[in-house]
Write a structure and sequence with these properties.
Blueprint (H helix, E strand, L loop, with lengths): L1 H17 L15 H20 L1 H7 L3 H8 L4 H13 L1 H47 L5 H37 L1
Helix pairs in contact: 2-3, 2-4, 2-6, 6-7
Length: 180
């Protein structure tokens, strides 16, 4: 009998608490636009990654990356916290924000990998040129050196072609926007 009374009271308490509406934060007076929030959270993700890899540098230089990001975007920590709390209570909207943040990170990753590949290619070309120059100084031009020079020339031409296409597509895009 006592057990059933205890269970009944427990059940009533549990039901009464579960039926209460959760307190969601009020919409901030100075609401940060969704796109701006995406930029801030993307910057925070990059800084956290950098801080994990270069913690010692951040400590030695006494750099506070979080305050830098907030200063960069012209907000203070209280405004960011209020906005972040409000956006977290808007689950669907916050999910969309994080999808955009993830997309920004992926795009940056692809750009970085492309730049790294170009840098490696240019380093390879530079090393090849140095080897050929050293051989020229020694007056030992071998057929392989001539083949290597031709290969370098072709690679440089390809790089120049890619740059020209990029410039052309950028100028076409810019002029197309101006016309509209």
């Amino acid at each position: 009998m006592k057990k059933s009374l205890v269970y009944s009271v427990f059940a009533i308490i549990l039901v009464s608490f579960s039926c209460q509406k959760l307190n969601s934060p009020d919409k901030p007076d100075n609401l940060i636009a969704e796109d701006k929030m995406v930029e801030i959270l993307t910057d925070i993700a990059f800084v956290k990654a950098a801080k994990g890899s270069y913690k010692k540098v951040f400590d030695i230089q006494k750099i506070n990356p979080e305050s830098y990001i907030l200063e960069k975007h012209g907000i203070d920590s209280l405004v960011f916290e209020a906005n972040n709390n409000w956006y977290t209570s808007q689950l669907d909207q916050y999910e969309e924000i994080f999808k955009k943040v993830k997309s920004n990170i992926e795009v940056s990753k692809i750009k970085f990998e492309k730049l790294k590949k170009e840098e490696d290619s240019l380093k390879k070309i530079s090393d090849s040129i140095k080897r050929v120059k050293n051989n020229l100084k020694d007056d030992k031009i071998l057929p392989e050196d001539l083949d290597e020079l031709e290969s370098i020339r072709e690679e440089l031409m390809d790089v120049e072609k890619e740059n020209a296409v990029k410039k052309r597509s950028n100028s076409n895009t810019a002029s197309g926007k101006k016309k509209q």
